[in-house]
Design the sequence.
């Protein structure tokens, strides 16, 4: 029976790809308040933590610092790893190309600002700003980012 059900269906080949990225949770204290940097990607209605893919021969912590610097405009000093998130998504590299299922791991590190300006963020972001950590947790568009923010808050509160 199963063979008959699939007969005549256009079964598309799905390409699988594994990717690794790294990013940062940039933090500061303003009085008793803890703030982190959140970014809104270009042409998207979402708030995220900065992250990106490594360049050749770059370590995860180097990637996290570079991507955080590029996407926020801040010079940062990387610290302890907050954690790793994993997720799966699908997309096409171009119209007519095969569907690609991407298995992604993202490693996040605490980052302390040491200069720069949020106004100098790159074109990948429409807006970058400091947020109270509770506000950031509520405004983060993805559950995995919220989980990293909760872990970072626990690390910075101890």
Sequence:
């Amino acid at each position: 029976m199963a063979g008959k059900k699939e007969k005549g269906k256009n079964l598309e080949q799905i390409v699988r790809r594994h990717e690794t990225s790294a990013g940062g949770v940039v933090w500061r204290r303003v009085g008793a308040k803890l703030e982190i940097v959140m970014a809104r990607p270009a042409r998207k209605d979402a708030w995220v933590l900065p992250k990106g893919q490594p360049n050749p021969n770059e370590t995860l912590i180097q990637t996290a610092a570079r991507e955080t610097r590029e996407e926020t405009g801040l010079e940062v000093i990387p610290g302890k790893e907050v954690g790793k998130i994993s997720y799966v998504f699908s997309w096409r590299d171009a119209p007519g190309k095969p569907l690609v299922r991407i298995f992604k791991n993202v490693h996040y590190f605490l980052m302390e600002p040491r200069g720069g300006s949020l106004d100098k963020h790159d074109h990948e972001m429409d807006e970058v700003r400091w947020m109270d950590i509770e506000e950031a947790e509520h405004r983060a568009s993805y559950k995995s980012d919220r989980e990293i923010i909760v872990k970072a808050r626990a690390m910075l509160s101890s």
